[in-house]
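One thing: could you explain this record?
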Amino acid sequence: MKTLNMMRLRRKLIRKLLFGMVLLFSVIGIFQIRDVSVSKQASNTATKDLKIRHVTDFFVEQIPNGRSNSRNISHKIKFPFKKYNISESYLIQRLERYSNACRGREFQFGKETKFSMKHHFRKSFSHHILYCSIEKAGSTFWRRMLQMLDSTNLKTPYDIAPLHVNEKSVPFVEEGLYHALASFKTNFVFVIARNPFTRLLSGYLDKIYTANPYYWNSIGRSIRPNPQRGRAACYSDITFQEIVDYVINAEGYFKKVRDPHFMAMHDMCKPCQIPYDFIGKMETFDKDFSFLMKTWNVSNFEGTDMKSMAVDDTFLDVATSLQDRKNSITPCISMHEAYLRSWKHMQIKGLISDHEIYPFDETKSQSIKPVDLIKVMKSAHLKSNQGELKIQKVKYFREIYRTVHLKSLNLLVQALRPDFEIFDYDPFPETIFNSTSPRLQHTDIFLVFNKTKSTGN
């Protein structure tokens, strides 16, 4: 009887192994059957006998004997676009680096499971687009963009209020392996990345430093598992050093719960496994945006001042969000402090000069309306010198990272190394890893009460 049970168990294990191999080869097969476009210089090259050995070989033309030839890369790269060729040199170089970084990582799947990964994708049905949404890498804008493309009455992405972005955003929920493979083959699939250092800081400023009790509670419990008293019980005083350590620990332990705003980019969007048609960067937004609009045959934005609209949208988001969270903020901090933090946030982002002081006193802050805050923020922005704002933004970036221990910074690079390598970012920028600069305290940057101008306006 025992022998019979062992035989049954072996047969069951063999069936599971064979099934797993079938699924694996099915995933790899998409790279061999997907239609590709070749640059004009290489359009007449015979490709029927080409052998693709790795996922990343998909981007490099293979010569018939199976060896890759990466010389004269502008003529040799093969792109997965179905209808379009790439001639932009910066995109050619980007895809070459991405291809090289992914080589050998095809079977490194990370911690994010397929069941949660699929919820990172958003879809445009009218334009056949799939977008992998990376939080704090322009995801709000691009989710709006897809909604606008599917709409008949929206002229710009900013016609959708910040608080309503996710209400009609269409998630891509695949119905099985083959449905997913077909979707990746028949849609334009893209992702937008961001420098891991600036993305992490943006997440801290937006979700922790700016008054946001939901994230204070959800992330704070992971950072400080022991019960706290007083202000610390709200987790409203979490430092940037603590967030850096949170990311290091969350990426290092498989069972740690991670928030998408602080999760590794490669783990969310699987760039070494999924055949992306385009990988963009926030740092080259203008060029990438123009390329995508041309590729999608969208001409709505000719002559539109997108930067000014983005600034106005940021102020609208700040004002309405604080008003919306007021009842959950006040048990932890005063609304005056909440507004001061948001004002400081805008200064760190390089939207308002340090010379422009928050104009309301503590009494007025208790009853301020969103429209009033938007008005004074826009006024302060217009008074600020744009050249000085750029310098100010870099200064804050450098100084905030000086509040983090060098040991933690090195561990952070180690935890996010695939992001730096796959998306081609410098893991050791001098602005952060300048050992001659003294470390700073959290309060040196983020203390707000001594900057108040009590005018009672």
